[in-house]
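Render this sequence as a predicted structure.
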Amino acid sequence: MIRFLACLSLFFFLVPVTYIHGSVPEKNDSQLIRLTPILFHAEQAENRRAGRLEFLRGWKIRSDNADFGGLSAMLALPDQQFIFLSDAGVLVGFTLDEKAHLARRPFIAPLPDGPPVPNEFAKKNWDSESLIHDPDTGQYWVGYERYHGVWRYGRSFARKEAKHDVEAMQDWPGNGGAEAMLRLVGEDEETDRFLVFSESAPFGKRAYQALIFAGDPTDHDIEPKVFGYRPPRGYQLTDAALLPDGKALLLHRRFTPLEGVSAIISIGDPAEIAAGKIWTSRLIARIKPPMRVDNMEALAVTMEGENTIIWMASDDNFNAFQETILMKFKLLPGKTKRKKASDGAPENDPEKEKAEARPGFSTISQ
């Protein structure tokens, strides 16, 4: 045993020495992105339903590029163009050819600029978590977590235009910053409103802080108002997107040793948001094993004819034991029931909420 431990110690001593003195491996900057079709249900291939979501297609996404992975936000643009943003400040994009299962015209490239590192020896870790796009101006907004700020970039991410270290975000936890953002387009001459959600900064009972910006969040003259968002019990918000009717679609994740990873998708009405109050949403689907699910962090919405299409992607945390997957769902008609909590706010316990189908197309109950 003593000889074994001595050999083991020698092994761990020699390994780093060999690595340090060896040549530094070249960074793989391949632009190739591969798509592999996946099934939704591991045990029942014909099962394509989760609540009000019907699985249409899905792919495992891979690339040999050293910067690929960690997808935390996504945009679905016209003509099947997708842009993903990793939590390392890297953009991943391609045009999706669904029938051929191909990622055409792919690219993997870092953002043109980002938050500074704390010192010259620190590793760049921009921790970009949320992404918004204005198709009229071509501008993009990125929410940074540990840096606790919002940056605006120009058309095609050509350059950084503005940034704001938001004072109201500076007390948020280091890993609980701007996890999701929404842009509510103003009607007529009204100013657009931006919503920025913290993943874990507390606000009242089981709720987390979020901010309302009456205008561009990179404008230093705008002082945001605080409200709370209460996710389904035990889950954390990871992304949000707007539905065609103006309601908000929200993505949540959870990990437990017994259940593993799971996701909940819900719908909320932004018209119900008020400063100082707690906002809630209504569960429409829960995805858990043996359904295909990973660390779901990215969400987007498109239309195909009269069908509302929901896209979800996962963050593999640059971990070989996790996957980067993209899934496509159709939003089915229906409405949801919910009970009232003791404090007067709707209770979001997924064990108590049920989805109820009804004739006709509706994205949310009336």
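Summary. Residues 1-21, 336-366 have pLDDT under 50 and may be disordered. The two ends are 71 Å apart (CA to CA).
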